[in-house]
Structures are given as structure tokens and as C-alpha cells.
């Protein structure tokens, strides 16, 4: 199905076609979902985005290629940040946090920092992005991604 047809099909349903967004991200990164260098996961299917009449604009969020920014070109429309799967070996370090380690999850914003205890869901070297879960999270809650700062500390920047 062409992108134009996918956009028209999504418009008739009232929401943007999330499969099209997944395909665009895969084309931009050059890797499929779940592969190293590709999106970590498909776009969350619970999203209800306005159909985009303009072509999607894709760019890297940072120089480290940690996530892709997907933006609808329509005035006042939406943008998404799609995390990219990266291998810790590629970051050139030995893991300083191992799966199951107790960690401190720091959320940092402009002029503030808040921390809470958590658990590492995977291993990572300094600078790697890993899945973590707050200690008080529900057992079926989705893990979040945070960057390893040092042994025992990960960070979620809000910039």
C-alpha cells in the first residue's frame, strides 16, 4: 500500500495510521523494529493521533541517535519520540548496572531533580539506555527507558 493510500485510509478512520509511522521509522533508521539501530518497539497502539495531511518529517533527536523524532507537518499537529534499540557493547563499556540491580532513578528537569528507588530490567554500561522499573510500580506496568549515569544511578532527562 502506498503512503498516500495509507494516509487516506487512516483519515477515513479518524486517526493516523500507526503502521505507516512504524514503516517510516524503519526506513529512516535502516533497521526493523527490535533490531539493533531500529525502533525498540512499535508505536504505542493506544495513541489516537490526528491524521496528517503533510508528509511526516523524521530526524534524530540527539547526535547519539537514541531516538527518532516523527513530526506531522500540519500546523499545530503532533510529534512523537521513538526510542531506538542500541547495544551496550556499541557504547564501548563494561556494564556497570546488571539486570535485577537496585538503582536510583533520577528525573531531571530545568532547575530540579527527583529520584526514586528502582530495579534495572537489563544490564548497561555508562551512557547506555536501559529499561528500568520503579520499585513501587505495578507488576504489569511497562518498564521505562533511562540512561546509565554511573553504578547504581540512571537518569531520565526532561529536556
Automatic annotation (TrEMBL):
Keywords: Cell projection, Cilium, Flagellum
Domain Flagella basal body P-ring formation protein FlgA SAF stretches: 94-138
Domain of life: Bacteria
InterPro entries tied to this protein: SAF_FlgA
Any matching Pfam family: ChapFlgA
UniProt name for this protein: Flagella basal body P-ring formation protein FlgA
Organism the protein comes from: Novosphingobium chloroacetimidivorans
